[in-house]
Amino acid sequence: MSDKNRKIHLHELKDPVVFIAMGLGSGLMPKAPGTAGTLLTVPLVFFLQQQSMFVYTLVTLFVLATGSWVCGYAASKLKVHDHSGIVYDEVAGFLITMSIAPHGWTWMIAGFILFRFFDAVKPWPISWFDKNIHGGFGIMLDDVIAGVFSLFCLLLIQQWV
Fold it and tell me: Does the N-terminal or the C-terminal CB of the chain have fewer CB atoms within 10 Å?
């Protein structure tokens, strides 16, 4: 087992920042914790899409503004850079993906698939940022870029449909 996937101890989860970074526990899934963290975000996105764009933007900016610190803090506490269970970055990326995307379950599913693809496959330049930018900012950055790529794809698809 690599350090990136090392088991989390209960005392580590008692730290509220680590618990939040771990997606309220969704990042503890033994398989595909990033997918679980993104799934956790679906109800939040659905709720935010029912609100004004101002509210959606405020929540997204809050997650982005706190993300580097939350992820960096959790990585430091877990003593593993970008532990696979840290999924706060997935929350940020999926919020970006769906920020100005059309509403509805079809678009939510398409955005989910696109975001998971870009986050997992990490095509260039995402892979470059993932390998070369470290700390909490680095943990966040590749998912933010994956979110932007996914949103761009959704908007292109919208133009064709």
Answer: N
Instruction: Give the residue ranges of the chain where pLDDT is below 50.
Output: 1-2
Work out the angle between the directed axes of helices 53-78 and 33-49 (0-180°, nearest 10): 160
Q: How many residues does the chain have?
A: 161
Residue of 145, 143, 142 lying closest to 130 (CA atoms): 142
The pTM assigned to this predicted structure is: 0.93
Q: How does DSSP assign the chain, residue by residue?
A: --GGGPPPPHHHHTSHHHHHHTGGGGGG-SS-HHHHHHHHHHHHHHHHHTS-HHHHHHHHHHHHHHHHHHHHHHHHHHTSTT-TT--HHHHHHHHHHHSSSPPSHHHHHHHHHHHHHHHHH--TTHHHHHHH--HHHHHHHHHHHHHHHHHHHHHHHHHH-
Going by C-alpha positions, the residue among 138, 8, 156 that lies closest to residue 78 is 8
Q: Parse the chain into domains and list their residue ranges.
A: 3-160
State the chain's mean pLDDT as an integer: 93
